[in-house]
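FORM 12-B: Structure-to-Sequence Request
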C-alpha cells in the first residue's frame, strides 16, 4: 500500500477517535471540533495528491518526478550507483551555501541574480539555496521511490499530536 494511503488511513482513524472522544481531553468541544476540521482538511489534501493546485502550482509528487527527471537528463544518474551518504552530504552542501548567503548579510527573502558561464541569468540568495536543498531531496526521493508527499503529510499530522516543545530541548 503506498505511503499516502497509509497516511490517509491513519488520519481517518485519528478522525474517528476524535469524533468518539468529543467530551474527552480538555473537554472543550470547540477545540476538538477545530481539530476534527484540521484532520478533514488533511484528508482532503491527501485525496488530492498528484493533482495540480488550483493556482497552477504542482503537487509535491509531481515536483519530485520533475526534479529527478531533470537530474537524469543532465547525467547525474549515469554510470555507477551513487552512494546514499554522499547524496545526503550534497543536501548538507546546499544548506551550507544557504548559510553562506546568510553570513554575507543577504536578507532572508532576498533574491538576486548573477550570470553563469553560458550567460544565463542565475537566481541567487537564501530562497534559491533553500530551493536547491529541496530539489536535491526531491531527486533522491525520485531515484529511490520515496513518496515524499505522503511522508510529509503523515509526519506533519503526527507532529500536531506532540506536546508543546516536546523533549524539553532549547533548540
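FORM 12-B RESPONSE
SEQUENCE OUT:
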Amino acid at each position: 500500500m503506498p505511503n499516502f494511503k497509509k497516511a490517509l488511513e491513519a488520519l481517518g482513524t485519528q478522525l474517528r477517535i476524535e469524533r468518539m472522544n468529543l467530551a474527552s481531553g480538555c473537554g472543550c468541544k470547540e477545540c476538538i471540533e477545530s481539530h476534527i476540521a484540521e484532520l478533514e482538511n488533511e484528508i482532503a489534501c491527501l485525496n488530492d495528491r498528484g493533482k495540480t493546485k488550483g493556482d497552477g502550482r504542482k503537487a509535491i509528487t509531481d515536483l519530485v518526478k520533475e526534479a529527478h527527471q531533470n537530474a537524469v537528463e543532465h547525467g547525474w544518474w549515469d554510470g555507477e550507483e551513487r552512494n546514499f551518504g554522499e547524496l545526503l552530504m550534497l543536501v548538507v552542501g546546499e544548506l551550507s551555501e544557504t548559510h553562506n548567503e546568510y553570513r554575507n548579510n543577504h536578507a532572508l527573502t532576498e533574491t538576486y541574480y548573477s550570470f553563469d558561464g553560458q550567460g544565463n541569468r542565475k537566481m541567487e540568495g537564501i530562497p534559491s539555496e533553500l530551493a536547491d536543498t529541496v530539489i536535491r531531496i526531491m531527486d533522491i526521493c525520485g531515484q529511490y521511490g520515496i513518496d515524499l508527499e505522503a511522508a510529509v503529510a503523515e509526519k506533519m499530522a503526527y507532529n500536531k499530536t506532540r506536546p508543546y516543545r516536546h523533549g524539553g530541548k532549547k533548540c
